[in-house]
Amino acid sequence: MRILIITGGRIDEDFALSLLEKEKFEHMIVVDGALAFWDKVEKNPDTTCHFDHLVGDFDTISPEILKNYLDREDIEVHRFNPEKDYTDTDIALKLAIHLTKSETGKADAKSEIWLLGATGTRADHMLANMQLLAQTRAAGVDGVIVDKNNKIRLLEGSYTLKREAQFGDFVSLIPVTQALKGVTLRGFKYLLDGHTTYWGESLCVSNELEAEEGYISIEEGLAFLIESRD
Predict the structure, then answer these.
(1) Thiamin pyrophosphokinase thiamin-binding domain location, by residue (predicted)?
(2) Mean pLDDT for each 10-residue chunk of the chain (230 residues)?
């Protein structure tokens, strides 16, 4: 199952429309202020996309736009008090993880949850959204944050990056835990073999893929894997 969360950070409209055209999702969740972007999408006569869940305290969306979506039969509305413990994006992610679960209560290991609009001008929200990927990892779901210039994953263990599917020219590993032990990089411009790097170091920033496939392995620790383009 693939789920897209559209939340209220910075959204490049051309990139977002291209993403909606190329990628297919079984569920789409729109979060609070992102409804303003979606309202433009719905008014496009060529659009074939529809979302099925609306989440938020709705303190950042205009009442004029909101009223057009609250009573629609094809949209399930999840409304919360503005004075709450978790951000709207966090609540939407918890909903998405719930949607991936089967009758056994476990998420399908092939499930993906993408977040669009999770980056932007608010550094506090952006960093909080990046750490939310720990929830997808704990649930056994592949979590991805994407914007016009970046694709972000939380990596543990190994990952193979294929040139044909590469998002951007630059590949970075940013330590999340105190140490990344046994880091091996193959197929990249800058190689490592069982190296240890630490939180606060920039050793693995701005690498480049040279082979058709790049292999990344971490024996112990967590890192953000970021594919970037200018």
Answers:
(1) 157-222
(2) 95 94 94 94 82 94 93 94 91 95 72 96 95 95 97 97 94 97 98 97 97 97 96
